[in-house]
Amino acid sequence: MLDCTSKEIRKRAGGAINPAKTCQPIGAMYAALGIHKCLPHSHGSQGCCSYHRMHLTRHFREPVMASTSSFTEGASVFGGSANLKTAIKNVFAIYNPDVMAVHTTCLSETIGDDIPSIIKTSEVPEGKLVIHANTPSYQGSHITGFSNMVKGMVNYLSRATTEVKKEQVNIIPGFVNPGDMREIKGIVEAMGIKYIMFPDTSGVMDSPLTGRSVMYPGGGAKVEDIADAGNSKITLALGSYASSDAAHLLERNCGVPEMVLKTPIGIKATDQFLMALRQGFVKKIPYQMEEERGQLVDILTDTHYHFHGKKAALFGDPDVVIGLTEFLLSMGMKPVHVLTGTPGGVIGATVGDFEKEIKELLSISGIDGRVKAGGDLFDLHQWIKNEPVDLLIGNTYGKYIARAEDIPFVRVGFPILDRSVHSYLPIVGYRGAMRLVEMISGALLDRADRDAAEEDFELVM
Amino acid sequence: MATAKAADLVFEERKDFIMTKGKQKKNLKCDSDSLAGCVSQRACVYCGARVVLNPITDAVHLVHGPIGCSSYTWDIRGSLTSGPDLYRFSFSTDLKEEDVIFGGEKKLALAIDELVEKYHPKLVLVYSTCIVGVIGDDLEAVCKAASKKHGIEVIPVQSSGFIGNKSAGYRAACDALLRLIKPDGIRLKKTSSINYLGDFNLAGEVWIIKNYLRRLGIHVNVAFTGDSRFETLKTATRASLNMVQCAGSMIYLAQKMEEIYQIPYLNISFLGLEDTAASLRKTASFFNDESITASAEELIKKETAVVMEDIRWYKEKLQGKKAAIYVGGGFKAISLIKQFREIGIDVVMIGTQTGREEEYQTINDLVDEGAVVLDDANPSELEKFMVEKGAHLLVGGVKERPLAYKLGVAFIDHNHDRKHPLSGFVGAVNFAREVYSTLCSPVWKYV
Ligand code: SF4
Q: What is the 3-state secondary structure (H, E, C) of chain A?
């Protein structure tokens, strides 16, 4: 399949073909699942909620609980206020979460429902909380939705209550897997630093099988911790697209200084993450981290000749792709096509420098590549037809291109619908980088084995 | 614990949607809207419409709306094709802020122009999503203009999410199909031609049934819509009978075709040995032709003989196990109950998303005393009754799979994600094998 993509590139203005992004609400839903005992709520038609849950379920292979306002024709005419009020009442009566996290959809945004005032005039049981984020699907992408919900958490929950800031760091991990969140926490713990991480989907979206199903698995950031984030000494926002808006708001509302870093993918970005932690807290880098780093460098030198000069195409969410690009460059590879579906400057947001950032990274290494924000996989496929590559990295949807062009393919990002285990294991930190090296060299060498002539087929590679 | 509590609190309002056989007199309430604030497993109008139309392999399926709806439905159905694969692409107008403010008609027209130029389709289906009506786009007018401009069919599918549930989407899809069908005055010879409705060729199921019918001397004119193409769909009126497999999605089309074109229809089901044999006989008797009847009997005998030994083997292993069913339509639930019986399994819980009243009646007649029947169930209800009734296996769709696993209950997908054909005689064995391989897997020992 996919012979339907032509090589000749023409300007298009009529929408997307084979998208490299999806809509805001699903990102908001995923972020909300990273609060302990929180039920995400989709304020719109039931179909949206159903699609988002299904998609998340396919990626994480976990049950995903979320409620819906179940809009009907009436709501689309008179507004969804009555639906949301009923929903708030019902959610606490039946599902009894600690927090209900409301996000909007394209429909409720277009109708113009005023969520904060609906919440204010609703009956919320004592000790329970309703937070919200506006997530219009016609702006940005799922990453924007994630960012907006994290901002909503700060907005509703974080407060500065102490004179002096506490010796603790806030970490906003971005739209990454639970496996990555565990790795990030592990690193900060190894450094011996007290931290608050939110959202935190570990223990929620990678919960163990116990033979009992629980509505709210044990994981997730606690409300009191998100509140206390207002008293921390510094916030590290990992990935500007998914995390910097919330960090920014935390600085403005609570006076917690923000520091925006890359998603710690690869050796350089992980170094920077550790440095930031050390600077903030004047701690010595523990031996464990030095050892891991040393192992990674060892692995990279052992294998560098497999990678050198290989051309790669990569696509996915901006923060992850920026980190990956940097890492591939440090391995000596040439990322000649780099694309994200998330558009650059979203109205009202302060982030969006994908193209500039990638271009800078490439130019330092003397590579002249194609870079695009707000692109789709039709674009990427055309690029590859015009300049073939040795490796493709991206989410599951890349498999069509990989097959059509017969390119080795490494699955990284969201969503991955056709493989499992990925959400449990990290791509961040030194150990995540080792895993990436294993995946990439595995793909390249399997291909070399497959294509080798009988006489060139080797045991030792 | 929270879930248990939630389930105990099953709303006053939800009570009418649940019944236990032998306990109530009144009929189950169904086809109402889900409650605001519930964790519903239900999908929307667009979803229903897309599911029905998606298998038209050579059409451009263009989703008019923000990106989400199109992303979530990109190639998720396992409908197979014997040729064109344009339907596996994801096309969206990807509406942005400015389109929402100023209207999306221009962008839609542009999108159609570009796609027609690129792919030269004969048919473009334009799906409306939630906001299209609200921002005031006149889909009908844009499609009409585009159709005229390009000299092809551009058909709007009225599938805004909030106008109902999945059933409303089935209807919207059928309406679109009705616009495609063009009577050309050609009626094929009475015995030779039928249409086969409500099979989406998941894992190649249409092909199996076509083959059976061919052996009976019956030609399938068009399958709606599994592995179908524009040119053949158009000729649907040439058939002398409509056979309806998935009644939930297609009964409306069959009724309309009877009304407009006087083509009668038959409800059949090719799920399970019993229903497959009965359906072949029913089809044969419609034609009242001795040779067809004889071929049908021969086919049933031959195919049953091929699979019977396997089925018996599985039945022995599976005897006494209990199953729970949660599927989209009532029709499928009915067939599944019978199919489980064929392999010695009792069904203790049945839920559907869009079952109709008469289907719930049939279900109630089929199941044993004490079985629970629910409409539009939510996860905590599913869990409560699975545990309470001691189900060993759940049949469901994507969202139910991890739910079952978390409880240590086996699972099979009877939805988009099925990997083997489940219809006909071969399908019955595949079904038994799938049930066996999940129920009897060693992994459950570790739970
Ligand atoms: S694009 Fe809009 S209607 Fe479609 S799933 Fe996203 S929020 Fe729902």
A: CCCCCCCCCCCCCCCEECECCCCHHHHHHHHHCCECCEEEEEECCHHHHHHHHHHHHHHHCCCCCCEECCCCHHHHHHCCHHHHHHHHHHHHHHHCCCEEEEEECHHHHHHCCCHHHHHHCCCCCCCCEEEEECCCCCCCCHHHHHHHHHHHHHHHHCCCCCCCCEEEEEEECCCCCHHHHHHHHHHHHHCCCCEEECCCCCCCCCCCCCCCCCCCCCCCECHHHHHHHHHEEEEEEECHHHHHHHHHHHHHHHCCCEEEECCCCHHHHHHHHHHHHHHHHCCCCCHHHHHHHHHHHHHHHHHHHHHCCCEEEEEECHHHHHHHHHHHHHCCCEEEEEEECCCCCCCCCCCCCHHHHHHHHHHHCCCCCEEEECCEHHHHHHHHHHCCCCEEEECCCHHHHHHHHCCCEEECCCCCCCCCCHHHCCCCHHHHHHHHHHHHHHHHHHHHHHHCCHHHCCCCC
Please tell us whether the domain made up of A24-157 is placed in CATH 3.40.50.1980. Answer: yes
Instruction: Identify whether residues B286 and B320 lie together within a single domain.
Output: no
Predicted complex ipTM: 0.92
Residues 256-275 of B with CB under 8 A from A: none
CA distance A154 to chain B (A): 24
Ligand 1, atom 7, lies closest to the CA of A105
Q: Is the pLDDT of residue B400 over 90?
A: no
Domain boundary among B162, B181, B208: B162
Whether residues B272 and B352 fall in one domain:
no
pLDDT digits 0-9 by tens, A155-194: 999 999 999 999 999 999 999 999 999 999 999 999 999 9
A24-157 and A166-207+214-285: identical CATH topology: yes
pTM of the complete model: 0.93
Phi, psi (degrees; rounded to nearest 5) at B349:
-145, 135
Atom in ligand 1 nearest the alpha carbon of residue A26 = 6
Whether residue B5 is predicted with pLDDT greater than 60 in this model: the reply is no
Kindly identify which residue of chain B lies nearest to residue A9, measuring between CA atoms.
B118
Atom of ligand 1 minimally distant from the CA of B72: 5
Task: Give the mutation candidate from A51, A143, A346 for the B interface (greatest B CB count, under 10 A).
Answer: A51
- Residues of chain A short of pLDDT 70, as ranges, are 1-3, 345-351
Nearest atom (ligand 1) to Cα of A25: 7
B109 with B205, same domain? no
- The verdict on a CB contact (< 8 Å) between B130 and A94 is no
Residue A352 and residue A372: Cα distance in Å, rounded?
12
CATH architecture of A288-456: 3-Layer(aba) Sandwich (3.40)
pLDDT of amino acid A157: 98
List, for residues A53-73, the tens digit of each pLDDT value. Answer: 999 999 999 999 999 998 887
Q: How many structural domains compose chain B?
A: 3
Residue that is written with structure tokens 């507004």 in the block: A79
Q: Domain limits at B104?
A: 45-162
CA–centroid distance, residue A321 to ligand 1 (Å) = 25
* % of residues, chain A, pLDDT over 70: 98
For residue B335, tell me if it sits in a domain: yes
Domain-located, residue B118: yes
CATH number at residue B292: 3.40.50.1980
Report, as an integer, the average pLDDT of B368-393.
85
The domain made up of A166-207+214-285 has a fold known as Rossmann fold (3.40.50)
Q: Sorting pLDDT into bands at 50, 70 and 90, what band is B42?
A: confident
Which residues in chain A have their CB less than 8 angstroms from residue B86's CB?
A: 4
For a pocket test of ligand 1, which of B90, B129, B131, B132 has the largest count of ligand atoms closer than 8 A to its C-beta?
Answer: B129
Asked if the structure places residue B174 within a domain, the reply is no
Spatial separation of the C-alpha atoms in residues B141 and B245, rounded to whole Å: 34
